Amino acid sequence: MEKKKVAYIYDPAFNTFDYGSEHPMKPQRIGMTHELIESYQLLPKLQVYKSPSMEINELLEFHDEKYLQFLQKVNPENEEQFSKEMEIYNPEEDCPIFKGLFEYSCLQAGSSKLGAKLLNDKEVEIAINWSGGYHHARKSQASGFCFVNDIVLAIQELLKHHTRVLYIDIDIHHGDGVETAFFSSNRVMTCSFHKYEDDWWPYTGKVSRIGTGKGENYSVNVPLKDNIDDEQYIYIFKKTMKEVIDRFQPNAIVMQCGCDTLAGDIIGDFNLTLEGPAECVRFIRQYNLPLLVLGGGGYTPKNVARCWTYLTSLLIDGKKLEKELPENIDRDIYGPNNLLYIDKYNRENKNSFEELDNIYTEIHNHLKNIEIVTSVENLIVSTKKQLKIK
Protein backbone atom coordinates (compact mmCIF):
# COMPACT_ATOMS: atom_id res chain seq x y z
CA MET A 1 0.00 0.00 0.00
CA GLU A 2 1.18 3.52 -0.73
CA LYS A 3 2.01 5.81 2.16
CA LYS A 4 -0.66 8.36 3.04
CA LYS A 5 -0.61 11.74 4.78
CA VAL A 6 -2.01 10.91 8.21
CA ALA A 7 -2.83 13.27 11.06
CA TYR A 8 -2.62 11.97 14.62
CA ILE A 9 -4.34 14.01 17.32
CA TYR A 10 -3.38 13.49 20.97
CA ASP A 11 -3.02 15.20 24.33
CA PRO A 12 -1.27 13.75 27.42
CA ALA A 13 -4.03 15.32 29.53
CA PHE A 14 -6.19 12.27 28.76
CA ASN A 15 -4.04 10.31 31.23
CA THR A 16 -5.20 12.54 34.09
CA PHE A 17 -8.93 11.75 33.91
CA ASP A 18 -10.50 8.91 35.86
CA TYR A 19 -14.03 7.45 35.71
CA GLY A 20 -13.33 5.64 38.99
CA SER A 21 -11.36 2.58 40.06
CA GLU A 22 -14.29 0.20 39.58
CA HIS A 23 -15.41 1.62 36.22
CA PRO A 24 -14.38 -0.30 33.06
CA MET A 25 -13.68 2.86 31.02
CA LYS A 26 -10.03 3.77 31.46
CA PRO A 27 -8.91 6.98 29.70
CA GLN A 28 -5.32 5.92 30.45
CA ARG A 29 -5.57 3.53 27.49
CA ILE A 30 -5.11 6.61 25.26
CA GLY A 31 -1.73 7.27 26.86
CA MET A 32 -0.81 3.59 26.64
CA THR A 33 -1.62 3.63 22.93
CA HIS A 34 0.51 6.75 22.44
CA GLU A 35 3.47 5.14 24.22
CA LEU A 36 3.22 2.05 22.05
CA ILE A 37 2.91 4.14 18.87
CA GLU A 38 6.02 6.04 19.96
CA SER A 39 7.91 2.85 20.83
CA TYR A 40 7.24 1.43 17.38
CA GLN A 41 8.69 4.68 15.96
CA LEU A 42 5.50 5.62 14.13
CA LEU A 43 5.32 9.25 15.29
CA PRO A 44 7.83 10.55 12.66
CA LYS A 45 5.53 9.12 9.97
CA LEU A 46 2.54 11.06 11.30
CA GLN A 47 1.53 14.71 11.34
CA VAL A 48 1.04 15.12 15.09
CA TYR A 49 -1.47 17.64 16.46
CA LYS A 50 -2.24 18.56 20.06
CA SER A 51 -5.90 18.08 20.98
CA PRO A 52 -7.81 21.38 20.98
CA SER A 53 -10.66 21.96 23.41
CA MET A 54 -14.04 22.48 21.76
CA GLU A 55 -15.78 25.75 22.64
CA ILE A 56 -19.32 25.83 24.01
CA ASN A 57 -20.69 27.47 20.85
CA GLU A 58 -19.31 24.56 18.81
CA LEU A 59 -20.87 21.99 21.13
CA LEU A 60 -24.20 23.76 20.65
CA GLU A 61 -24.16 22.73 16.98
CA PHE A 62 -25.55 19.42 18.26
CA HIS A 63 -26.03 19.42 22.02
CA ASP A 64 -28.75 21.12 24.08
CA GLU A 65 -27.67 24.28 25.93
CA LYS A 66 -29.15 23.30 29.30
CA TYR A 67 -27.50 19.90 29.10
CA LEU A 68 -24.12 21.51 28.44
CA GLN A 69 -24.63 23.92 31.34
CA PHE A 70 -25.26 20.90 33.57
CA LEU A 71 -22.04 19.23 32.40
CA GLN A 72 -20.11 22.45 33.04
CA LYS A 73 -21.37 22.89 36.60
CA VAL A 74 -21.67 19.39 38.05
CA ASN A 75 -18.73 17.75 39.82
CA PRO A 76 -18.25 14.98 42.40
CA GLU A 77 -18.47 17.47 45.29
CA ASN A 78 -21.80 19.08 44.29
CA GLU A 79 -23.45 16.14 42.51
CA GLU A 80 -26.19 15.82 45.14
CA GLN A 81 -27.31 19.40 44.43
CA PHE A 82 -28.11 18.36 40.84
CA SER A 83 -30.35 15.39 41.66
CA LYS A 84 -33.21 16.64 39.46
CA GLU A 85 -30.88 17.37 36.55
CA MET A 86 -29.26 13.96 36.98
CA GLU A 87 -32.63 12.29 36.43
CA ILE A 88 -33.07 14.21 33.17
CA TYR A 89 -29.56 14.38 31.72
CA ASN A 90 -27.77 11.41 33.27
CA PRO A 91 -30.29 8.75 34.30
CA GLU A 92 -27.98 5.75 33.84
CA GLU A 93 -25.45 4.71 36.46
CA ASP A 94 -22.78 3.95 33.84
CA CYS A 95 -21.89 7.65 33.34
CA PRO A 96 -20.31 8.72 36.65
CA ILE A 97 -19.61 12.35 37.44
CA PHE A 98 -15.83 12.66 37.75
CA LYS A 99 -13.35 15.49 38.17
CA GLY A 100 -12.66 17.28 34.88
CA LEU A 101 -15.61 15.65 33.10
CA PHE A 102 -16.42 18.69 30.94
CA GLU A 103 -12.76 19.35 30.08
CA TYR A 104 -12.38 15.70 29.09
CA SER A 105 -15.43 15.82 26.83
CA CYS A 106 -14.33 19.08 25.19
CA LEU A 107 -10.90 17.62 24.39
CA GLN A 108 -12.47 14.53 22.83
CA ALA A 109 -14.85 16.54 20.69
CA GLY A 110 -12.27 19.15 19.75
CA SER A 111 -9.91 16.43 18.56
CA SER A 112 -12.52 14.80 16.33
CA LYS A 113 -13.60 18.13 14.87
CA LEU A 114 -9.97 19.05 14.17
CA GLY A 115 -9.61 15.78 12.27
CA ALA A 116 -12.67 16.65 10.18
CA LYS A 117 -11.32 20.14 9.47
CA LEU A 118 -7.95 18.78 8.35
CA LEU A 119 -9.77 16.50 5.92
CA ASN A 120 -12.01 19.33 4.71
CA ASP A 121 -8.95 21.51 4.05
CA LYS A 122 -7.17 18.60 2.34
CA GLU A 123 -4.23 18.92 4.72
CA VAL A 124 -4.23 15.14 5.16
CA GLU A 125 -5.87 12.06 3.65
CA ILE A 126 -6.55 10.34 6.98
CA ALA A 127 -7.03 11.75 10.48
CA ILE A 128 -6.82 9.66 13.66
CA ASN A 129 -8.28 10.51 17.07
CA TRP A 130 -8.14 7.50 19.37
CA SER A 131 -9.67 9.55 22.19
CA GLY A 132 -12.89 9.96 20.20
CA GLY A 133 -15.63 7.60 19.05
CA TYR A 134 -18.14 8.20 21.86
CA HIS A 135 -21.14 7.02 19.91
CA HIS A 136 -23.86 6.73 22.57
CA ALA A 137 -24.23 10.35 23.77
CA ARG A 138 -27.53 11.99 22.84
CA LYS A 139 -28.42 15.61 22.19
CA SER A 140 -29.36 16.19 25.83
CA GLN A 141 -28.39 13.02 27.65
CA ALA A 142 -25.31 11.06 28.69
CA SER A 143 -25.33 7.38 27.81
CA GLY A 144 -23.02 4.38 27.75
CA PHE A 145 -19.90 6.07 29.21
CA CYS A 146 -20.41 8.94 26.71
CA PHE A 147 -21.21 12.55 27.61
CA VAL A 148 -20.57 14.43 24.35
CA ASN A 149 -21.01 12.90 20.90
CA ASP A 150 -17.78 13.86 19.17
CA ILE A 151 -18.75 11.73 16.16
CA VAL A 152 -21.91 13.67 15.35
CA LEU A 153 -20.04 16.97 15.74
CA ALA A 154 -17.27 15.75 13.40
CA ILE A 155 -19.76 14.52 10.80
CA GLN A 156 -21.51 17.90 10.90
CA GLU A 157 -18.15 19.51 10.15
CA LEU A 158 -17.51 17.15 7.22
CA LEU A 159 -20.97 17.86 5.80
CA LYS A 160 -19.96 21.49 5.31
CA HIS A 161 -17.66 20.33 2.50
CA HIS A 162 -18.93 16.86 1.56
CA THR A 163 -22.35 15.98 0.20
CA ARG A 164 -22.48 12.45 1.59
CA VAL A 165 -20.70 11.08 4.64
CA LEU A 166 -20.58 7.39 5.52
CA TYR A 167 -20.32 6.42 9.18
CA ILE A 168 -18.99 2.92 9.98
CA ASP A 169 -19.07 1.52 13.51
CA ILE A 170 -17.22 -1.70 14.44
CA ASP A 171 -17.65 -1.39 18.21
CA ILE A 172 -19.41 -4.36 19.84
CA HIS A 173 -22.21 -2.01 20.93
CA HIS A 174 -24.74 -0.56 18.52
CA GLY A 175 -23.86 2.99 17.47
CA ASP A 176 -27.25 4.23 18.61
CA GLY A 177 -26.42 7.86 19.37
CA VAL A 178 -24.98 8.59 15.92
CA GLU A 179 -27.73 6.63 14.18
CA THR A 180 -30.44 8.55 16.05
CA ALA A 181 -28.88 11.91 15.18
CA PHE A 182 -29.00 11.20 11.44
CA PHE A 183 -31.98 8.82 11.35
CA SER A 184 -33.97 11.05 8.99
CA SER A 185 -31.03 12.25 6.86
CA ASN A 186 -30.09 11.00 3.39
CA ARG A 187 -26.71 12.75 3.52
CA VAL A 188 -25.32 10.50 6.23
CA MET A 189 -25.47 6.73 6.04
CA THR A 190 -24.77 4.95 9.32
CA CYS A 191 -23.58 1.35 9.27
CA SER A 192 -23.13 -0.49 12.58
CA PHE A 193 -21.73 -4.00 13.15
CA HIS A 194 -22.57 -5.04 16.69
CA LYS A 195 -23.74 -7.70 19.08
CA TYR A 196 -27.52 -7.88 19.29
CA GLU A 197 -29.53 -9.84 21.83
CA ASP A 198 -32.66 -8.96 23.80
CA ASP A 199 -30.64 -8.53 27.00
CA TRP A 200 -27.59 -6.80 25.46
CA TRP A 201 -27.28 -3.05 25.96
CA PRO A 202 -28.37 -0.72 24.32
CA TYR A 203 -31.09 -3.18 23.21
CA THR A 204 -31.22 -1.66 19.70
CA GLY A 205 -29.73 -2.41 16.30
CA LYS A 206 -32.04 -4.87 14.57
CA VAL A 207 -31.44 -5.26 10.83
CA SER A 208 -34.98 -3.92 10.30
CA ARG A 209 -34.04 -0.54 11.80
CA ILE A 210 -33.41 1.36 8.55
CA GLY A 211 -34.15 5.06 9.09
CA THR A 212 -37.21 7.23 8.53
CA GLY A 213 -38.44 9.93 6.14
CA LYS A 214 -35.65 11.08 3.83
CA GLY A 215 -33.36 8.81 5.82
CA GLU A 216 -35.28 5.62 5.11
CA ASN A 217 -32.81 2.91 4.04
CA TYR A 218 -29.86 5.09 5.14
CA SER A 219 -29.38 3.28 8.45
CA VAL A 220 -27.71 -0.12 8.11
CA ASN A 221 -27.52 -2.51 11.05
CA VAL A 222 -25.61 -5.80 11.14
CA PRO A 223 -26.63 -7.69 14.30
CA LEU A 224 -24.21 -10.44 15.34
CA LYS A 225 -24.02 -13.13 18.02
CA ASP A 226 -21.44 -14.14 20.61
CA ASN A 227 -17.94 -15.31 19.71
CA ILE A 228 -17.90 -14.35 16.04
CA ASP A 229 -14.37 -14.89 14.70
CA ASP A 230 -12.16 -13.03 12.23
CA GLU A 231 -13.22 -15.08 9.21
CA GLN A 232 -16.94 -14.48 9.65
CA TYR A 233 -16.59 -10.86 10.75
CA ILE A 234 -14.42 -9.93 7.78
CA TYR A 235 -16.76 -11.83 5.45
CA ILE A 236 -19.91 -9.94 6.47
CA PHE A 237 -18.05 -6.63 6.79
CA LYS A 238 -16.60 -6.67 3.28
CA LYS A 239 -19.77 -7.99 1.68
CA THR A 240 -21.92 -5.34 3.37
CA MET A 241 -19.54 -2.41 2.97
CA LYS A 242 -18.96 -3.01 -0.74
CA GLU A 243 -22.72 -2.84 -1.28
CA VAL A 244 -23.07 0.22 0.97
CA ILE A 245 -20.28 2.16 -0.72
CA ASP A 246 -21.39 1.21 -4.23
CA ARG A 247 -24.92 2.40 -3.47
CA PHE A 248 -24.29 5.44 -1.30
CA GLN A 249 -21.14 6.74 -3.05
CA PRO A 250 -19.81 8.66 -0.04
CA ASN A 251 -17.48 11.64 -0.36
CA ALA A 252 -15.95 11.06 3.09
CA ILE A 253 -15.92 8.30 5.70
CA VAL A 254 -15.88 8.28 9.50
CA MET A 255 -14.90 4.96 11.05
CA GLN A 256 -15.35 4.20 14.75
CA CYS A 257 -12.92 1.46 15.76
CA GLY A 258 -14.04 0.34 19.19
CA CYS A 259 -12.03 -2.76 20.06
CA ASP A 260 -14.28 -4.34 22.66
CA THR A 261 -14.76 -6.93 19.91
CA LEU A 262 -11.36 -8.46 20.69
CA ALA A 263 -10.97 -11.80 22.43
CA GLY A 264 -10.39 -11.22 26.12
CA ASP A 265 -12.25 -7.93 26.44
CA ILE A 266 -13.75 -7.69 29.93
CA ILE A 267 -17.15 -6.57 28.56
CA GLY A 268 -17.34 -7.77 24.96
CA ASP A 269 -18.26 -11.31 23.90
CA PHE A 270 -16.78 -11.47 20.39
CA ASN A 271 -13.66 -13.48 19.58
CA LEU A 272 -11.61 -11.38 17.18
CA THR A 273 -7.83 -11.11 16.97
CA LEU A 274 -6.20 -7.88 15.78
CA GLU A 275 -6.63 -9.09 12.21
CA GLY A 276 -10.42 -8.70 12.45
CA PRO A 277 -10.52 -4.90 12.82
CA ALA A 278 -7.27 -4.59 10.85
CA GLU A 279 -8.73 -6.17 7.71
CA CYS A 280 -11.80 -3.95 8.03
CA VAL A 281 -9.57 -0.86 8.15
CA ARG A 282 -7.49 -2.09 5.18
CA PHE A 283 -10.67 -2.58 3.16
CA ILE A 284 -11.96 0.93 3.84
CA ARG A 285 -8.55 2.56 3.34
CA GLN A 286 -8.32 1.24 -0.22
CA TYR A 287 -11.24 3.44 -1.33
CA ASN A 288 -8.93 6.47 -1.02
CA LEU A 289 -11.64 8.72 0.41
CA PRO A 290 -11.10 11.31 3.17
CA LEU A 291 -11.12 9.14 6.28
CA LEU A 292 -11.57 10.08 9.94
CA VAL A 293 -10.68 7.19 12.25
CA LEU A 294 -11.84 7.25 15.87
CA GLY A 295 -11.55 5.10 18.97
CA GLY A 296 -14.51 3.86 21.00
CA GLY A 297 -15.03 0.94 23.34
CA GLY A 298 -12.34 -1.41 24.58
CA TYR A 299 -11.99 -2.42 28.20
CA THR A 300 -8.83 -4.48 28.38
CA PRO A 301 -6.42 -1.52 28.07
CA LYS A 302 -3.32 -3.48 27.02
CA ASN A 303 -5.23 -4.96 24.07
CA VAL A 304 -6.75 -1.59 23.19
CA ALA A 305 -3.23 -0.17 22.92
CA ARG A 306 -2.11 -3.15 20.83
CA CYS A 307 -5.03 -2.80 18.44
CA TRP A 308 -4.96 0.96 17.91
CA THR A 309 -1.18 0.96 17.47
CA TYR A 310 -1.46 -1.74 14.81
CA LEU A 311 -4.28 0.15 13.06
CA THR A 312 -2.18 3.33 13.12
CA SER A 313 0.60 1.55 11.23
CA LEU A 314 -1.84 0.14 8.68
CA LEU A 315 -3.36 3.56 8.09
CA ILE A 316 0.06 5.08 7.42
CA ASP A 317 1.39 2.63 4.86
CA GLY A 318 -0.39 -0.70 5.25
CA LYS A 319 2.58 -2.34 6.95
CA LYS A 320 2.39 -4.90 9.72
CA LEU A 321 4.39 -4.33 12.87
CA GLU A 322 7.03 -6.55 14.44
CA LYS A 323 5.49 -9.38 16.43
CA GLU A 324 7.73 -8.75 19.43
CA LEU A 325 6.83 -5.67 21.45
CA PRO A 326 9.59 -3.02 21.63
CA GLU A 327 12.08 -3.57 24.46
CA ASN A 328 11.33 -0.21 26.11
CA ILE A 329 7.69 -1.18 26.77
CA ASP A 330 6.67 -2.07 30.33
CA ARG A 331 6.70 -5.88 30.24
CA ASP A 332 4.63 -6.10 33.41
CA ILE A 333 1.69 -4.53 31.55
CA TYR A 334 1.84 -6.53 28.32
CA GLY A 335 3.05 -9.87 29.65
CA PRO A 336 3.35 -12.74 29.88
CA ASN A 337 4.35 -13.27 26.23
CA ASN A 338 5.22 -9.65 25.32
CA LEU A 339 3.80 -10.02 21.82
CA LEU A 340 1.81 -7.45 19.88
CA TYR A 341 -0.70 -9.91 18.47
CA ILE A 342 -3.33 -11.77 20.47
CA ASP A 343 -4.95 -15.18 19.99
CA LYS A 344 -8.63 -15.96 19.87
CA TYR A 345 -10.21 -18.05 22.61
CA ASN A 346 -11.57 -21.58 22.31
CA ARG A 347 -15.26 -20.70 22.49
CA GLU A 348 -18.41 -21.80 20.71
CA ASN A 349 -19.21 -19.47 17.80
CA LYS A 350 -22.94 -18.73 17.87
CA ASN A 351 -22.91 -17.35 14.29
CA SER A 352 -23.22 -19.26 11.00
CA PHE A 353 -22.44 -18.19 7.45
CA GLU A 354 -26.03 -18.97 6.52
CA GLU A 355 -27.28 -16.50 9.13
CA LEU A 356 -24.81 -13.88 7.93
CA ASP A 357 -25.99 -14.33 4.35
CA ASN A 358 -29.59 -13.88 5.48
CA ILE A 359 -28.66 -10.62 7.22
CA TYR A 360 -26.87 -9.42 4.09
CA THR A 361 -29.87 -10.30 1.89
CA GLU A 362 -32.17 -8.19 4.06
CA ILE A 363 -29.71 -5.29 3.97
CA HIS A 364 -29.39 -5.62 0.19
CA ASN A 365 -33.17 -5.44 -0.19
CA HIS A 366 -33.20 -2.15 1.72
CA LEU A 367 -30.18 -0.65 -0.03
CA LYS A 368 -31.49 -1.28 -3.54
CA ASN A 369 -34.19 1.31 -2.82
CA ILE A 370 -31.62 4.10 -2.51
CA GLU A 371 -31.51 6.63 -5.33
CA ILE A 372 -28.11 8.20 -5.87
CA VAL A 373 -28.15 11.96 -6.52
CA THR A 374 -25.20 12.99 -8.66
CA SER A 375 -26.27 16.35 -10.12
CA VAL A 376 -23.61 19.06 -9.94
CA GLU A 377 -25.75 21.42 -7.86
CA ASN A 378 -26.05 18.80 -5.13
CA LEU A 379 -22.29 18.44 -4.92
CA ILE A 380 -21.92 22.05 -3.80
CA VAL A 381 -22.55 22.38 -0.08
CA SER A 382 -22.81 25.76 1.62
CA THR A 383 -20.44 26.01 4.59
CA LYS A 384 -22.99 28.26 6.30
CA LYS A 385 -25.88 25.81 6.12
CA GLN A 386 -27.13 24.75 9.54
CA LEU A 387 -28.00 21.08 9.76
CA LYS A 388 -31.20 20.16 11.54
CA ILE A 389 -30.74 16.83 13.25
CA LYS A 390 -32.33 15.12 16.20
UniProtKB/TrEMBL annotation:
SUPFAM superfamilies: Arginase/deacetylase (SSF52768). It comes from Anaeramoeba flamelloides. This is Histone deacetylase. It catalyses: N(6)-acetyl-L-lysyl-[histone] + H2O = L-lysyl-[histone] + acetate. Residues 23-314 form the Histone deacetylase domain. The keyword Cell membrane does not apply. Belongs to the histone deacetylase family. HD Type 1 subfamily. One of its GO terms (cellular component) is histone deacetylase complex. Keywords: Chromatin regulator, Hydrolase, Metal-binding, Nucleus, Transcription, Transcription regulation. The active site is at residue 136.
